[in-house]
Amino acid sequence: MRGHRKLAQPPHLTSPPSGGEEHDHQYRRPKSHATGTIAGHEPCGVVVAVGSGVTDAEAKVGDRMMVHHYQGCTQCSHCRSGWQQLCQEVPVKVYGGNSHGGHARYLKVPANTMVPLPDALSFSAGAAISCGSGTAYGALRRLNLSGRDTIAIFGQGPVGLAGTQFAKAMGARVIALDVNPQRLARAKEFGADELVDPGSNDPVAAIKELTHGRYADLTLDTSSNREARLNAIRSTKVWGTMCFVGEGGDVTIDVSPHLLRRQLNLIASWTFSTVIQAECAEFCVERGIDVDRLFTHQWTLDQADEAYTLFDKQSDGKGVFLI
Questions:
Q1: Each residue of 87-116: pLDDT tens digit?
Q2: Most-buried pick from 60, 98, 113, 227 (CB within 10 A)?
C-alpha cells in the first residue's frame, strides 16, 4: 500500500494496547529506548499489491484505502465486529506503535484492516478520518448528539476541532473551549457558536451563563487536562452526558455532587470501529464536510525532523506527510 500518511498534532504515534497501559509518545523516547519500529499510525493510500489469500471483495490493486491501524486475533467478537483494538485474546498490534506504521513509501497490512476511501475524499482527508477526525466522530456517535443539543468541547486541537466541525454538521450548538487564541479562532471558522478561554474565564460559569443556567446537554473532553476534565463534568447539565476522549492523565471527582446527585452519565470513547470509520467517511461526503481544512502543514518524509520539532511544541495546527 502506498500513499499519504498523517502526522497529527500532538503526534499520535502510539495508542495503548488492550489493557490500558499508559499512553507514551514514541517520538519522545531516548534513542537508547528506540524500538526500531517505523512510526506513523494513520495511513491512507493506494493498494499496489495483494497476497494470494486476498479476494477481490477485500482489496484489489488500485483501490483507494484507509487503514484501521489495529490488529487483534481477528476471530473474537470484538475483532469480527470491527473493534480489533479491543481484542482480549492476543496482544494488539498498533501500526506505528508496536508494529511498523506508515512513515515509509510502502506499508504492509492485513486486508481486514482496510476501509475503502470514497472517491470524493482526498488521501489527506482519509488519513484524518483514520484516527483524529474518526475519533471525534466516534465520540459524537457515542454521545448520540442531535440538533437539539448544546455541546461544550474542551480542547480545540485536531480532535476537538474535528468534533466542532462534525457537531455543527449534525446540527448542534457548539461551545468551544481552549486556552490557545489561535485554536479558538479556528474553532470559530469551523462553526463554533460560542468561544470560551478557560485561562481568562471560569469555564463552568461561562457555560452556565451561555445556557441560561441549564449547563451543556453534552460535554466532550479532548484535552487530557485534569482541570479541563473536571470542568467538563461540572458544566454538564442534570441528566446530561460527559465523554472522555483525550488519552492519558487522570481526574479526581467528588462523586456525590458531580455525578450521583445530577444523574450524570459518564462515558469514554476510544477511537472507532471499521464500521464507524466507513460511516464517518460517508458522512463527510454526504454533508460536504471539508476535512482537508483541518491541515495547516504538509511535509515530505525527508522533512520529518523539521515536522516533529514543530509539532512537539503542541501550539500549531495539524500536519500531513505526503508521499
A1: 999 999 999 889 998 888 899 999 999 999
A2: 113
Query: What's residue 315's pLDDT?
Result: 63
Residue of 50 and 33 predicted with greater confidence: 50
Distance CA 109, CA 119 (A): 21
Environment class of 163 (CB within 10 Å of its CB; exposed 0-12, middle 13-18, buried 19+): buried
What is the CATH classification number for the domain harbouring 248?
A: 3.40.50.720
> Across residues 112-123, what is the average pLDDT?
96
Question: What pLDDT score was predicted for residue 22?
Answer: 39
| pLDDT tens for each residue of 182-229 | 999 999 999 999 999 999 999 999 999 999 999 999 999 999 999 999
- Do 224 and 298 have their domain in common? no
Asked if 42 and 62 sit in the same domain, the reply is yes
Local confidence band at 5 (pLDDT 50, 70, 90 cut-offs): very low
- One domain, residues 247 and 179: yes
What's the burial of 64, exposed, middle or buried (CB within 10 Å: 0-12/13-18/19+)?
middle
pTM exceeds 0.85 for this model: yes
**Amino acid type, 121:** L
Residue 63 gets the label, from left (phi > 0), alpha (psi -120 to 50) or beta, of beta
**Do residues 122 and 142 share a domain?**
no
Q: Which residues constitute the domain of residue 166?
A: 136-268
Number of folded domains that form the chain: 2
Copy the grid coordinates of residue 5: 500518511
